[in-house]
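Below is how a single chain appears once it has passed through the pipeline. First comes the sequence as given, then the structure the pipeline wrote out for it. We keep one example in the README because the format questions we get most often are answered faster by looking than by reading.
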Amino acid sequence: MKVLVTGSAGFIGMHCVERLLARGDEVVGVDNLNDYYDVTLKEARLARIADHEAFRFHRVAVEDRDAMAGIFADEKPDRVIHLAAQAGVRYSLENPHAYIDANLQGFINILEGCRHNDVAHLAYASSSSVYGGNELMPFSEHHSVDHPVSLYAATKKANELMAHTYSHLYDLPTTGLRFFTVYGPWGRPDMALFLFTNAIRKGVPIDVYNKGAMVRDFTYIDDIVEGVIRVLDKTATPNPDFDPLNPDPGSSKAPYRVFNIGNGNPTPLMDYIGALEGALGMTAEKNMMPMQPGDVPATSSDTGELQDWVGFAPNTDVRDGVARFVDWYISYYGRNDQA
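Resulting structure:
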């Protein structure tokens, strides 16, 4: 089939495109290659897929209404994986308008493109950040997500609401995927693993927030991609048991679904750092810092619904995943030349 992948030069996007191409799909990529982080890394990712005969690339921002409408009309994709977004919790404190442009305006352009071009299924990136101030763990799709603690989280929650509206009004099947702290080769330089690796190799102290009392459901990139592709292939359907008197936040009378994609094995931040120190053969000097605004002390995913839906739940051990990241990092940046 023909699949439109937005954010195709991004971390998750590139890996999804590679997987789709490997199984014989035709892929249309969209990315604006903005400078939120190192553009050369995005270009290097894109170079891995650009020459494939079944891949076409459009350098376009998803918030560009006319350009996106034209891509949908010309390409007529069968299905869409929407990953393009302004990412990052802390950056949303500095540049909130970027999140409104990319995450809200961009998402309505995707929904409209799907609606007017008979797209069979839209799978889109949400985030574990939608759980916000929730403290009941593990986080479940059946829990309320009405208390975001960052604008980034609020835009992802808004995406889920917007998707439900289109599923209800236009019978557009949509599935939201709440990613939990994705890491691995070709990852984002603004994420902790990348920052820590770079600093440790340079002999620079690493900033450890909340004085290390953090827990995250770190999820390896290959597990994320497996979940995304399986969900893409299984079109969202109405929940026949949906009760409007006791509504389930994770499903609907409309063809709308939401799933967690997390490792289901929350790891203390200090253990994560320990795995990195082991892989590098170096010890980090740690700068113990207070909690940052918009952050939460812990995340933990219940992936039972995903497993029931597509027969898969992430399971890569953090030590293995971190070691693979370090191998990639050293091969990409060089053993002695540090990023």
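The radius of gyration is 19 Å.

See the next section for the split statistics.
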